Recover the amino acids of this structure.
């Protein structure tokens, strides 16, 4: 299986997704370190957006 | 074959570990991003045996839990456990009522009562926490009356309604660490120390995890605390005090990804095993 690559929406750097990536997964851009979220995951392409900011009710 | 419906918002490293543990056990996971669902009882269809709540958003997770329970599906943790554990005041009440050692606390809604409550708790310092919240966010150690006034006024003016309920806890001096116990069905499966020179030891705030041997005292305390809040999959934050161990807080959608390595215990595997065990009893 080919490793999917996607553009970082912040710095345009190339982000390689893990083989077992899932939609909604949080990953970091290796270049600008921004926390990103996988918003769409198809066989040949993935879309990344900046991860949502932490909200008041987030946690354990 | 058992299928677990896994409720989530964002997928963190913890959820990835659960997915991997399920794969190793040949257990099917149906990922359910609650933000994309329409929770309408008249149209919703399910094809899983049991539901595991892993939402990072407490409020969304609670609504989803209630919905699936209304469909007669078992949700881990159930809505009763979540209702107790999501709110620090409700947790403290449950622990105190059950005779589980926990730091002294009070709830007030204005500055005058806060000052009186602090006197009842033995004076400054105290810790003020939002009743709902996590990861050590917006905790304030209050050392004197001036700080108390400033913090409460800021919360009153800037805060959401949740921030205007002042949960006050007696400050416990820690030996540079606290303990987190991972507890399933009342049984402690592993424990870590969370080390930090700061009085807030959350790993989300830089606390470093190392293995902590499970003592009989931790095991007994965690069992009692688990029973007090309704059981299920929990993690307990424990303070070491001069008079013994005390339960500080209990988490009902615990994060554990930084704890598997130091303890050598597959917490994710234990979570999946517990879901399977409950599903087989249904």
């Amino acid at each position: 299986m080919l490793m999917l690559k996607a553009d970082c929406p912040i710095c345009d750097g190339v982000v390689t997704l893990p083989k077992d990536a899932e939609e909604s997964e949080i990953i970091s851009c290796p270049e600008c370190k921004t926390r990103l979220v996988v918003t769409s995951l198809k066989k040949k392409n993935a879309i990344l957006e900046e991860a949502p900011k932490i909200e008041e009710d987030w946690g354990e | 074959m058992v299928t677990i419906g896994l409720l989530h918002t964002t997928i963190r490293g913890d959820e990835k570990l659960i997915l991997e543990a399920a794969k190793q056990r040949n257990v099917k996971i149906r990922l359910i991003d609650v933000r994309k669902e329409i929770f309408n009882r008249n149209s919703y269809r399910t094809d899983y045996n049991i539901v595991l709540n892993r939402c990072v958003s407490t409020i969304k997770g609670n609504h989803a839990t209630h919905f699936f329970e209304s469909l007669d599906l078992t949700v881990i943790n159930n809505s009763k456990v979540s209702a107790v554990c999501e709110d620090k005041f409700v947790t403290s009440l449950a622990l105190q009522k059950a005779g589980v050692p926990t730091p002294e606390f009070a709830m007030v809604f204005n500055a005058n009562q806060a000052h009186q409550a602090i006197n009842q708790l033995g004076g400054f310092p105290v810790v003020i926490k939002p009743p709902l919240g996590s990861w050590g966010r917006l905790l304030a150690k209050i050392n004197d009356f001036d700080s108390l006034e400033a913090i409460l006024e800021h919360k009153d003016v800037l805060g959401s309604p949740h921030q205007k309920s002042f949960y006050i806890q007696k400050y416990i001096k820690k030996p540079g660490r606290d303990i987190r116990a991972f507890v399933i069905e009342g049984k402690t499966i592993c424990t870590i120390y969370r080390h930090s020179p700061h009085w807030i030891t959350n790993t989300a705030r830089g606390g470093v995890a190392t293995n902590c041997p499970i003592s009989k005292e931790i095991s007994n305390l965690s069992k009692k605390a688990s029973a007090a809040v309704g059981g299920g999959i929990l993690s307990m934050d424990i303070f070491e005090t001069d008079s013994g161990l005390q339960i500080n807080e209990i988490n009902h959608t615990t994060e554990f990804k930084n704890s598997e390595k130091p303890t050598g215990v597959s917490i994710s595997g234990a979570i999946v095993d517990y879901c399977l065990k409950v599903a087989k009893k249904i």
Notes: The mean pLDDT of chain A is 92.
